[in-house]
């Protein structure tokens, strides 16, 4: 019953092929000599060269990086607090609403979130640009961070916190000296998750951004609408490569940390 | 250790109630614990003993009532400001700190100079015999070693009171027995008051000066281990501590022999030397511990407290044997007898007809 | 100040409440409040102005403003079959995609859970990796595959499986493929987390009592992994209903999903009030699944 059967193996092979073949093809064709993305004409890196000369792409990349960094950092801060509040603060007044607001953004369609935020910015007479996109990204990212932190906290031994209090450490100090270091891997995962979500967001950015603040996904989207070219493949490959690097190193760091701090549970 | 009523209690629970929503965990409880005692809170799961301990530590606030420590009302003081330390059931060692740093943590909160801290940490490491492990992290220690670190950490600040929450539960029997004696020695040596929560009655009896038996949020009886065992206040205490034979019946009065009980469902009349203040005809119980029941194949030489039955089962325990005897009225009694001889023609075996006998002094009477 | 009032203020502004307050306030202002604004604007009319909708409050001489609201947009939506069809089509596509994703996702999650322990970390990472890669890029990748001159047709034609190129691109089928592909990690992860925590001894007990493996799977494993299944389905279904990028890039003119409708009303037609009304109705349709999802998550915490 618990044997790893041929069926299981097949499911994994088929499943992972399904997941990865499109990406692999994408990468391959970014090195295509010709302009087509379906007929191989030889190996060439010219599309990457074109990328480096494409100012609008470079600008968009810079905007995206700024937004991603700033929004992830603030989102991690807010989301960590929210995650701890949800797990530790018991039944406070307004808890249902709070938890609703934490889980909803993960499932509410992006077009609704984007529209509502834009209308809010208009109502508050705010000019749309990098600032508003960042605010929007913080808002939905913090919920993902909260969920990651909440998940970590649910397996956190509360008696460790109690022990610290018992030994004379104030609640605030306990959080910084005991709790935070222990859940740090989860907090960092939260940051990485926010970063990726921000990097990747098209819909909400389209609604909440403004002139001069075109993000990379927005730029790619407009390029796609004009026609499929290997230049898009090249941009995609770079992004995929960076993300892969990030995820693999995060996983390795996580594994290393686990060996260092966690007892034999 | 004799309890002198004129000594002021060190810990006082005054009419403490704790409710969790609709559920009452602690019900109007009043309890005194004295300085330098090794006091156990004993009871079945859910009796409220852990809640009581946590209220003492400050992790739960009483819904009603006050808690006093050394005369001072600590009910509203948060845990990090109480001169009390706790040893947790899960040890709760800080996983990202070494053994040394774990023990030093409490001392650092008091902002002691570092040389004093180091000195104290070394003292503690010495006390629990873990000096070579100072630089290790918790995940590099065995269960028993973790427990010692937890103990050292909780004693480092020399608290007025040490609370122990089922500290020996995770240890195997041999280590548990050894640690029990170590705890007793440390408590006497350092002169700190220990309050321990446990569901293991053997443990409570071994280590404590006094035991508080709890059930359903109330303290049923507070007494020395000896008293609890030989003079339980209620049926539930008698049944919870050790094994006991209970005879239900009707009170028939008191004479030279003692309190007389007419057994339920039988003709037998049994006696206890203890006097009791109930009306004749009231329902009472007689309790006799199995080791006080003499079992023999021949009729004992006595006028009363003799019952005849058949051996249904025998449990061999090495140094002693437990005999389960069925009476004609269907009741089952258990008698324990030391296996004094290696082999004997007088050995009792299955299906033997036997006589059970006890002295009136060995039985006590219970009303509830 | 009387002692009780001071006490009350102290109790409200104590440390604990301040901590709760920070994320709470942020979400109230930037998540909840925006929905109210959408609601408000859905009652407005489009005008040529900046911003392009009529005011809700008209401030006149009296202290209280008069409210200018109309149900015009809602009536328009209800009467025009385009919108109703779009809502229904979105629900249908989302349901079917969710089911397909469930079948594939469960198979993968189950297989990972049963695989040798040393593989699992890597396998999970391989599942998560595409999720961290850009959504847009992954959808884009499928364009190259599904086009008439695309790689899939190339493969099928060269292998002789078909003699005419299949038209998959710009059809509903492409949308299904796109949604399943993009949302697969969202289904796999909760199910995997659930199966991994399952007590193996329950399955062993069933086997011990004579239950055949297939039956054990249906009667024990599946019901026990239900929380994971539900979480995965919510995580796929709810956002899929309002999905925009996939129908836009992979779907055709016949594929009118409500997310795309909203986008077009807003960006192409500049009709903010109508777009708002579309959003409100969409949210109303999804509110029950959303609340249900939140309930299951809360339960998981307790």
Within CATH, the superfamily of the domain at 80-270 in chain C carries the name MetI-like
Largest sheet of chain B: 6 strands, mixed
Strand content of chain B: 25-35%
Helical content class of chain B = 10-25%
Total discrete domains of chain B: 2
Number of helices of chain B: 8
Helices, strands, pairings?
The complex is a heterotrimer of chains A (265), B (368) and C (302).
Chain A: H1 6-29, H2 46-53, H3 55-88, H4 95-107, H5 110-123, H6 130-154, H7 158-166, H8 171-200, H9 203-208, H10 216-226, H11 230-261
Chain B: E1 11-20, E2 23-33, E3 38-42, H1 49-57, E4 64-69, E5 72-73, E6 84-87, H2 99-109, H3 114-127, H4 143-155, E7 161-165, H5 173-190, E8 193-198, H6 201-207, E9 210-215, E10 218-223, H7 225-230, H8 235-240, E11 245-254, E12 259-263, E13 269-272, E14 283-288, E15 294-296, E16 306-316, E17 320-326, E18 332-338, E19 353-357, E20 363-366
Parallel strand pairs in B: 3-8, 3-9, 6-7, 7-8
Antiparallel strand pairs in B: 1-2, 1-4, 4-5, 9-10, 11-12, 11-14, 12-13, 14-20, 15-19, 16-17, 16-19, 17-18
Helix pairs in contact in B: 2-3, 2-4, 3-4
Chain C: H1 3-12, H2 15-42, E1 57-58, E2 66-67, H3 72-79, H4 81-114, H5 117-132, H6 135-146, H7 151-159, H8 172-197, H9 200-208, H10 213-224, H11 226-241, H12 245-250, H13 258-268, H14 272-301
Antiparallel strand pairs in C: 1-2
Helix pairs in contact in C: 2-14, 4-8, 4-11, 5-8, 6-8, 8-11, 9-10, 11-14, 13-14
Which tags fit this structure?
heterotrimer; A: mainly alpha; MetI-like fold; 11 helices; 0% strand; B: 368 residues; alpha+beta; Rossmann fold; OB fold (Dihydrolipoamide Acetyltransferase, E2P); 2 domains; 20 strands; elongated
Characterise this structure.
The complex is a heterotrimer of chains A (265), B (368) and C (302). With 265 residues, chain A is mainly alpha-helical. Chain A contains 11 helices and no strands. Chain A has a single domain, classed as Orthogonal Bundle (MetI-like fold), CATH 1.10.3720. Chain A is globular, with a radius of gyration of 22 Å. In chain A, 50% of the residues are buried. Chain B is an alpha+beta fold and 368 residues long. Chain B has a 6-stranded mixed beta sheet, with helices on both faces. Chain B has a 5-stranded antiparallel beta sheet with strand order 13-12-11-14-20, with no helix packed on it. Chain B contains 8 helices and 20 strands. The two termini of chain B are 29 Å apart. The mean pLDDT of chain C is 82. In chain C, helix 4 runs antiparallel to helix 11 (226-241), helix 5 packs antiparallel against helix 8 and helix 11 runs antiparallel to helix 14. Chain C contains 14 helices and 2 strands, in the order H-H-E-E-H-H-H-H-H-H-H-H-H-H-H-H. Chain C has helices at 3-12, 15-42, 72-79, 81-114, 117-132, 135-146, 151-159, 172-197, 200-208, 213-224, 226-241, 245-250, 258-268, 272-301, and strands at 57-58, 66-67. Chain C has a two-stranded antiparallel ribbon with strand order 1-2.
